[in-house]
Amino acid sequence: MSEGDGDDAVIRVALADDQILVRAGFRALLAAQPDIEVVGEAADGEQALALVREQHPDVVLMDIRMPVLDGLAATRRITGDPALGEVKVVMLTTFELDEYVFEAIRSGASGFLVKDTEPEELLRAVRAVVGGDALLSPGVTRRLIAEFAARSREPAPAAALAELTEREREVMALVGMGLSNQEIARRLVVSPLTAKTHVSRTMVKLGVRDRAQLVVLAYESGLVRPGWLG
Q: What structural domains does the chain harbor?
């Protein structure tokens, strides 16, 4: 974010969607916020990739279906480039259960939003993903988890989990179940800041980019199972 990392920092956002009216609507909403700046627009995945490399935005709102290079492929290139490690990608889709949402998260996207989401929810999501907090609502997270679980093979134990403390494993499992930091704090009877610290340390130890990938790893490792969704 520009102007340092204080509370008055401006969140720099790039828009990638092949529909000009969609981009115009998002731009109007985002640009009206004092803490958000739209740094550019792209109409396809190749343009999005070039824009991200040039501007290094904090967040990219990336449509899944675009010409030339689709959003999924563009996301893989962004998240796979060490020079763009701080860029967060949020996928845009028409339906919550879009067939590509699952693969988008696996590709490194920090989450996804439906295009007809409420304006307040879009703004909250942009701010949340930059802050490293939960982006997906619990309901959407659980649907994503259910789809992941249905497609996954029998999970194999992850050696990396051996580095985690017992509390960090517990926190990771709760993240995997779709709980927010606030909900984790209530469950463990700790402060929200302590819960956030545990989540952050767990992510650092496992080398994951964000919370969404932590959810995926929780299932891949077998730490969380589908039957725990409730």
A: 11-145 (3.40.50.2300), 155-221 (1.10.10.10)
